[in-house]
């Protein structure tokens, strides 16, 4: 092939092909952008009226409240995503770096602010335990190395198949990393004080795991937290959704909201996509939906990606009891990101992963974005989100939810000194049922598959379908995993796999 033809092929390897993306979460939007940039004619079908999937927004009476993720972490991942299309995040939304990163209330009356300065954090650790400052510095060095290897080799590099890990370069890169022990075991080698252990492990909740079941490689999250910083996009994470959607439209993606997909029928090197409006054929489908939902509800009878036994044996990330509140007056000393923790959180994790039950003494997160961003609430009010991780699959009928609501609001008043109950002017809730019904999430998980050792990297469901060469997956259930940066990258990997197949492997990267 002449050089000029090769160059053109590299620019638009999917010219003349049609692609349908099912689901407008971050993974689906990212996949749509990459596919469109490669020349495909892309339709994105989103069942709800808003894009973003779980990253939605309540917008009413002057309040703008994120319903899903609210932490903007790994800023380089967003720069990398937009950079693929010669854009920058600042073209779509503004960022503010938070200092402190977050405030912690322990239920024994102790309270700390975690500053935006690793050296100040080391000094904080030293006040709790002699020698812990230097231990923190050493721990953070190991976390940085884990991040460099983990992100470069397992996130940005697609290793969604076991064979992708049989790479001598990878084996050299992971040398010296603790891969098989749990986070709990690894952190115990650095710190004795249980509060310090919590400060370096709380980010595991973002991965849907617990200290006892998450591999030590995820120390990388401490580098994300303490070194890379915590940010807030003006308007919340939903503004990032808006930005990615704007980019997708600029690239020519046809986005249709309020369009649920009812069937995917693979045949003749294409897939017939069924909606209420009719059917159409697509050369490629990228499903940004729970693969279990695709298995059970969208593929034809007798055709299954994995099957019910597989899904019943998975370890799911927690569900969540969510309160979305508009509150009159100020809510100090609650901060933009606030954690309320028992000094011993093991019982709460047991009630999520081992003996599922509503937590007796919950650890939870409170988000007050309006304390930083006045666009999130009307004057004289605050937007407040309360998230309590709970076991997936719990019975969450009205009576038990009302009882737990009272328990949580009372707990907030007791341990932070902020009584919200008589000042709530807007209230919405979400729990197991909503995550299951609205998003087809197995057992009503709020996040996807937990990052246990047996569900990490190539051991997660593949981005490639086993039932059709025309079907691919993106989102938190596949690799690289849970979190907005991971989902953006999963869309990139899905599109790269489509590109590689279309070109016989000639062009698998951008």
Automatic annotation (TrEMBL):
<dbReference type="InterPro" id="IPR014105">
    <property type="entry name" value="Carotenoid/retinoid_OxRdtase"/>
</dbReference>
<dbReference type="InterPro" id="IPR036188">
    <property type="entry name" value="FAD/NAD-bd_sf"/>
</dbReference>
<dbReference type="GO" id="GO:0016117">
    <property type="term" value="P:carotenoid biosynthetic process"/>
</dbReference>
<comment type="pathway">
    <text>Carotenoid biosynthesis.</text>
</comment>
<protein>
    <submittedName>
        <fullName>Phytoene dehydrogenase (Phytoene desaturase)</fullName>
        <ecNumber>1.14.99.-</ecNumber>
    </submittedName>
</protein>
<dbReference type="GO" id="GO:0016491">
    <property type="term" value="F:oxidoreductase activity"/>
</dbReference>
<dbReference type="Pfam" id="PF01593">
    <property type="entry name" value="Amino_oxidase"/>
</dbReference>
<keyword id="KW-0560">Oxidoreductase</keyword>
<keyword id="KW-0125">Carotenoid biosynthesis</keyword>
<feature type="domain" description="Amine oxidase">
    <location>
        <begin position="27"/>
        <end position="498"/>
    </location>
</feature>
<dbReference type="InterPro" id="IPR002937">
    <property type="entry name" value="Amino_oxidase"/>
</dbReference>
